[in-house]
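Good day; I would like, with your permission, to put a structural problem before you. What I wish to show you is a protein chain and, alongside it, a tokenised description of its three-dimensional fold. I would ask you to consider whether the tokens describe a fold that such a sequence might reasonably adopt. You will find the record immediately after this paragraph:
***
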Amino acid sequence: MPQSSLAPDVRPARLSADEYARRFSDANPRMTQAQAVLEAERCLYCFDAPCASACPTHIDVPSFIRRIGDGNLRGAAHTILDANPLGGMCARVCPTEVLCEQVCVRNTQEGKPVAIGRLQRHAVDAVLDQSATTLFTRAASTGKRVAVVGAGPAGLACAHTLARSGHDVMVFDARPKAGGLNEYGLAAYKTPEGFAQHELAWLLSIGGIALNKGWKLERPEQLGRLRQEFDAVFLALGLAGTHPLNVPGEHLLGVQDAVDFIAVLRQSNDLSTLPVGRRVIVIGGGMTAVDAAVQSKLLGAEVVQMVYRRGVAEMAASEAEQEWAQTRGVSIRHWLAPVEILGNNGHVHAVRFAAQRLVDGKLSPTGGFEVIEADMVLKAIGQQMLSSVLAESGIALSGGRIATDGVGRTSQGGVWAGGDCRAGGLDLTVEAAAHGKQSAQAIHNHLMNT
């Protein structure tokens, strides 16, 4: 953002270099070996373990934890990555508190689950840190070629699984770097030290995967060519669009999408160059809103408020994420819906909110209003798929996303889909990885029987 467009209370370099480094350091430092062994000993190694069932990728949790306890980190990592090729990233960002750890028997009995996510990271990091890590070997070439559109979690999981089976995979992506959400959309403190690219390098080391970056699906003819040139196509498009607020003042300077704010921050080599307001409002109640709000605070904003139109129980962000934001200085306001963004000389200076309440189960204004001052406003009210090309290509949609069967098969022969673009999902990295592997197995079966 050019300096001339900044309001007086929006500026870079609010902190010292050391303070930026401290604030954006790893949010959950690694366990030591001693800590990991002690935590592993808390596992009851349940038969038919509920934690494994709760994981979308169905990692055999008791098995990998037992291996950690035995000091076999390679074996533990093999168990994890065999089920989930993106097990390292998922260990960092997966909401384990509402998945595997929530149903952990230690949690239901004692209120303190085994730290499954941290143990998973301990095992995977120990192996990926090695310069030459060969956990899996690639099957003999099948001569089949598969196009994967999108290099995010679903696309990468699909590509890796297909490559293991001996297929040649070309991954197409619009961005300069592969990784999708993992590279551009997650808080920097969750994935420090370039872990997304480190994991990507490991995924590609299986062989048989080529990247075609700077390629964007914009016309039906492109999809048609992929279907002609490849034996199968997997669509992992993610959600490239964002929902607008549709209120006056939305296009004032200082108002931007939270996903863009996060992407710029993630690609910055010098956080001191990033301007941030003294007073920041983040509109939304999901994980992206939390990531944007916390990082605004970490960049040096004095007052950061997340504002959500409904109550705490309806927030998409987990309780743990909400607590994380609040303990880092973010205030969370509820029952307020934006009705106008107010400007001064072309730049935002406040947001006018209408108070809300539930009437017969429906959100309704109370008649009250509140104006909250802000130098920056970040919109985080959800993302959507840009689906016109797909509709023109004859791909059936459901709720604006791609309709599929249980293994990701679309309405068009030879085309599968997974990740956030697939209808009916949870919009989680771990689910995207599960979709990618699931569809890869279905594609493999299809190719071997045709």
Q: What stands out?
A: The chain is about 35% helix and 20% strand. The first strand starts at residue 10 and ends at 11. The chain has three domains: 33-128, 145-240+385-448, 242-383.
